[in-house]
């Protein structure tokens, strides 16, 4: 008999090790990390520079491979997939938001949002996309080109694009890194609403305690290891936690 679990896991890594390079110059970017990202939650990954945040995100999202250990999206182990299946998984089950907005300049806002679906030949769920346009507040900009938008508006398009295919999990790598604090706050509020209103999962790498405070939970890395988790973070609590790492290291 199987027991139903109430907490679904959107993504996780188990005993994740990532070594870059070989010999004397080898860097152990992840040193045995096990962490799960619960479905329907907004999780931030934090830690000092070089602690392995981006590496963890890239390996969890199937953008890079682990040296040893395992990464899962839902129940699918990424290491078991050949290149073609991995590409399909990234296309159909995962969304991405990067620091650079990566919009196509010649396409309109509406076309940029549906681009991944159009490329895959999927019809997409038009009602879902219509609702997304309202969540990101771009109804009156749909026929504009990216160059006619502010940075914050461009990142909102990128967020809508990431959610367009109803992915199981959206990975965001420093999504507010190129934005002023006001636009950044809007994008973070938007990620939060997307999680709450549409029951999606977001995993975000950030070095900004204010950004991390928008998440439901923060996981902390130091020297390639998971060292702490914090529920209901505030910027002050996150900052204090980061300072404690620095005190230990100095
Ligand atoms: N492609 C690579 N080749 C060699 N070393 C790498 C590579 N990518 C990352 N590293 C090293 O792995 C470690 C972890 O890097 P990573 O980018 O994951 O850290 P981070 O916590 O995201 O850092 P930051 O906050 O500065 O972006 C660092 O020591 C980095 O120099």
UniProtKB/TrEMBL annotation:
<dbReference type="InterPro" id="IPR003439">
    <property type="entry name" value="ABC_transporter-like_ATP-bd"/>
</dbReference>
<dbReference type="Pfam" id="PF00005">
    <property type="entry name" value="ABC_tran"/>
</dbReference>
<dbReference type="GO" id="GO:0005524">
    <property type="term" value="F:ATP binding"/>
</dbReference>
<dbReference type="InterPro" id="IPR027417">
    <property type="entry name" value="P-loop_NTPase"/>
</dbReference>
<keyword id="KW-0067">ATP-binding</keyword>
<keyword id="KW-0813">Transport</keyword>
<dbReference type="InterPro" id="IPR017911">
    <property type="entry name" value="MacB-like_ATP-bd"/>
</dbReference>
<protein>
    <submittedName>
        <fullName>ABC transporter ATP-binding protein</fullName>
    </submittedName>
</protein>
<dbReference type="InterPro" id="IPR003593">
    <property type="entry name" value="AAA+_ATPase"/>
</dbReference>
<keyword id="KW-0547">Nucleotide-binding</keyword>
<dbReference type="InterPro" id="IPR015854">
    <property type="entry name" value="ABC_transpr_LolD-like"/>
</dbReference>
<dbReference type="InterPro" id="IPR017871">
    <property type="entry name" value="ABC_transporter-like_CS"/>
</dbReference>
<feature type="domain" description="ABC transporter">
    <location>
        <begin position="11"/>
        <end position="248"/>
    </location>
</feature>
């Amino acid at each position: 008999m199987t027991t139903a679990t109430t907490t679904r896991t959107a993504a996780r890594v188990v005993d994740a090790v990532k070594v870059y390079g070989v010999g004397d110059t080898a860097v152990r970017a992840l040193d045995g990390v096990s962490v799960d990202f619960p479905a329907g939650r907004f999780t931030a990954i934090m830690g000092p520079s070089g602690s392995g945040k981006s590496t963890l995100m890239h390996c969890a999202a199937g953008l890079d491979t682990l040296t040893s250990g395992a990464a899962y999206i839902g129940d699918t182990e990424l290491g078991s997939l050949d290149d073609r299946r991995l590409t399909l998984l990234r296309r159909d089950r995962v969304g991405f938001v990067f620091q650079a907005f990566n919009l196509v300049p010649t396409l309109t806002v509406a076309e940029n949002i549906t681009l991944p679906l159009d490329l895959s030949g999927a019809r997409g769920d038009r009602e879902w996309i219509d609702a997304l346009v309202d969540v990101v507040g771009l109804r009156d900009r749909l026929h504009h080109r990216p160059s006619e938008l502010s940075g914050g508006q461009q990142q909102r398009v990128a967020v809508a694009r990431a959610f367009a295919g109803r992915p199981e999990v959206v990975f965001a790598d420093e999504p507010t890194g190129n934005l002023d604090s006001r636009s950044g706050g809007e994008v973070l509020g938007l990620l939060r609403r997307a999680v709450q209103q549409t029951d999606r999962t977001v995993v975000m790498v950030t070095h900004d305690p204010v950004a991390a405070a928008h998440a439901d939970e923060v996981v902390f890395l130091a020297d390639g290891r998971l060292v702490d988790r914090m529920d209901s973070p505030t910027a002050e609590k996150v900052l204090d936690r980061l300072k404690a790492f620095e005190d230990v290291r100095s």
